Amino acid sequence: MRLIVTRPAAQAADWVQALQALGQDAVALPLLDIAPVADPAPLHAAWRGLASAHFVMFVSANAVAHFFAQAPAGLDWPAGLRAGCTGPGTSAALRAAGVPAGSIVEPPAGASFDSESLWALLAHEDWAGRRVLVVRGEEGRDWFADTLRAGGAAVDFVAAYRRCAPALDATAHALLAHALAAPAAHLWLFSSSEGVAHLRTLAPGADWSRSRALASHPRIAQTARELGFAQVTLTAPAPAAVAAAAAAAAAGPSIQSASQ
């Protein structure tokens, strides 16, 4: 069974390589493009204000990459400033960018990789009067910021990147067509609800009722089910966990359409 990795191109390439090293037949079909923001001035201002922040939340590895790419000359990550994230990919990106491991707050292994799990590590603190910066795309979920504000924190957002619908080349179009024609031979790996939603536009009217997927979060899984995927399995966003879940899916029976 071929596993289709749908992360943005840069991350998808790394995932495909890691999965192939584990013996999994994997191929990239990015369902989300990531682009820089048109105006980097707010990012520069955010960097200049880091010294007054108490906490910085990064929503993804893309947020880390694009934020640090706009660091003004001579400015480094302030000593002692904590950086929060919801998953291992983002924490790895933070370490690679130079944030000390001891300054990174992330959900432990076995927890859900989401804002709720991150907040569980922070809820005991007094946030009244503290300044928090959330680094994300141009749009995003506000639950973490709303929760902090309810506790008295002052929360600012800065957009580090733009999420865009992908422009598929001929190879990607062929892979999509093959996956639709032979669903039993393919397994989708979803890491973004927005990416799943793009399939509606990329394959209008497609029948997904015999297709299977892995998803890294319940909200993503629900989006895939709403699109029509008959079977969606939750898996941790780590190559070894994904490879094990893919092997289990390959060993299971194929899905028959309602008309068969």
Brief rundown of the structure:
This protein has helices spanning 9-21, 41-48, 61-69, 88-97, 115-120, 143-150, 170-181, 193-202, 218-227, 239-251; strands at 2-5, 26-28, 33-36, 55-58, 82-84, 104-105, 131-137, 154-164, 186-190, 212-215, 231-234. It is an alpha/beta fold and 260 residues long. The chain is elongated, with a radius of gyration of 20 Å.
What do these coordinates show?
The chain is of the alpha/beta class. It folds into two domains: 2-32 and 167-251, Rossmann fold (3-Layer(aba) Sandwich), CATH 3.40.50; 35-163, Rossmann fold (3-Layer(aba) Sandwich). The chain is built from ten helices and eleven strands. A six-stranded mixed sheet has the order 3-8-7-4-5-6. Strand 10, helix 9 (218-227) and strand 11 (231-234) form a beta-alpha-beta unit. The longest helix has 13 residues, at 9-21.
List the uncertain runs. Answer: none
Kindly identify the CATH topology of the largest domain: Rossmann fold
Mean pLDDT: 92
> What percent strand?
15-25%
Main beta-sheet annotation: 6 strands, mixed
Which structural category fits the helices and strands? alpha/beta
Percent of residues in helices comes to: 25-40%
What is the radius of gyration? 20 Å
- Kindly report how far apart the N and C termini lie: 22 Å
Shape: elongated
Counting DSSP E segments of at least 2 residues, the number of strands comes to: 11
